[in-house]
Amino acid sequence: MSKIGIIAGGGKLPILIGEQLIQSGNKVVFFCIESYAKKSEYKNFVKTFIKLELISEIIKILKIHKIEKIIMAGYVKRPSLKDIKFDLKGLKLIKEYALQSKGDDKLLVAIAKFFEKEGFNFINWKNNCKNLFINEENLSYIKPSRKSLDNLNIGLKIFNKLGKIDLCQSMIIQNNIILGVEAAEGTDELIKRCFKYKKKGDKGILLKFSKYNQDKRFDVPVIGLKTFKLLKKYNYEGVFVEKNHLIIIDKDQVIDFCNNNSLFISSVKKI
User: Fold this and answer.
1) What is the pTM of this model?
2) 180 vs 157: CA distance, rounded Å
3) What is the pLDDT of residues 159-206, one digit of tens each?
4) Going from the N-terminus, what domains does the chain have, and what CATH number goes with each?
5) pLDDT single digits (tens) 29-49
6) Taking the CB of the first residue and of the last residue of the chain, which one, N or C, has fewer CB atoms within 10 A?
């Protein structure tokens, strides 16, 4: 039986992963990042709270719990490195990252390599949690229109280029025109930002995929009810997500909302 440590940021994803691993017979300990993971959500689990900047303390606590396998999951706002008071090991980590080409994925890989040097192994948890990922072609009763499928084809071609250079997990397309791609602000702010660029024609769609060279041990795309409420508020037709590579948080609630508000959810493969 494996003992796995989950370094948990915000949101429900760490708990979903942990529950799946526990059901598979693994022992799980959550290492919850303060200011992100909510204490009330972890009351039924073995957990300890950690400060992101105290890398030496995190390593010490992991070893006390005899953790060898690690997963990172959950939302953490990309920090301004100059504003965080790292300890000595943290400064060493930042130095190693600074020597690499930049990008969110590169930062995560640098973190993994740093912890691996300390004797830990970041594992690919996806194989134990396959039922969390979306594989149905259409999840909602509503299906995408012909115009939405045309928008999709435009988006797939752009994703093919942007995803390979560590850019863009989400994109808004209307009338076969790219209105915007996701930057540091996240998917929800992208939806709001692109509304002002919409013209007469089709309602527009959201595409949400993983990047082509993304390390699946860390950065898995997720989407939840809040995002779908924004799609309704700003009058979009629906969303295409990447088949077998994206997780919908509170899936049943999301599907009910879409069915009641004429939004489609479809999964497709990247080209």
Assistant:
1) 0.84
2) 15
3) 877 766 666 689 999 999 999 998 878 899 999 999 999 999 999 999
4) 3-128 (3.40.50.20), 133-268 (3.40.140.80)
5) 999 988 888 999 999 999 999
6) N
